[in-house]
Design brief:
286 residues; alpha/beta; 2 domains; four-stranded mixed beta sheet; 8 helices; 12 strands; 25% strand
Length: 286
Amino acid sequence: MRRIERNRIRDLVAQLCIQANYQLPEEVTQALKKAKRRESSRVAREVLDQLIENAQIAREGIYPLCQDTGIVEIFLEIGEDVKFKMQKAKGKIQSLEEAIQEGVRKGYRKGYLRKSIVNPLDRKNTKDNTPAITHTRIVKGNGLKITVFIKGFGSENVSATKMLLPSNGKEGIVDFVLRKVQEAGASPCPPIVVGVGIGGTLEKSSLLAKEALLRPLGRPHPKKEIRDLERELLKKINGLGIGPSGLGGRITSLAVHVETFPTHIAGLPVAVNINCCALRYATGIV
């Protein structure tokens, strides 16, 4: 049994919040450069140039990639042989969840990042960008893997879930994904990355779509059937002509990632989670 102290978790979460907001993953930068080489539109190439330059300035000058520093989602992979060592603070025992939220507060304060989280009804700002949303998976071993995903709402607002019928089949899935991308247009700041979740239940399909976005960009799914669906969707999305920043062009999407899960015989849940060109995430291991 391995013990991990709460402070290590808090500090790692804080570090990852700053890193994700300031440093675009290298595979995303490379995808933008590849898109530029494939673009035939002069305007589209200029937009891609600006996105690449923005990423470089943010990394070198230590600036946020975007003014929308997002809502924080934390993906935890917790080894079943891990025990968390909690410490007394101000008369109470702090939990793993509290350590994570403290890390977000610390990261957004230290990184001078905009606080965007509000109560959904009275719209009052929480003033520290918490609470973050946490997703937990128990895995083998004695490690702890933490992934911080920064989700802006220009893209989150155009994401959607639909309970299709089994009779809709693959054709219904493709039509739904294409319709959502077409309706989104320039709102999610293309070129976008499209995560698609198929199966499970209403909430499971949505989580699958979001998890799909965290697969290394452009890495095809290991299953041929799903890999072929990703290729078909990417080709059709890039045939829509929306292009970078919605100004036309060949590249509307950098990648489409699909994840699936078994579902009920009477259902076919499908979710589309769109991310802007700034796919911001960072991963650390304790």
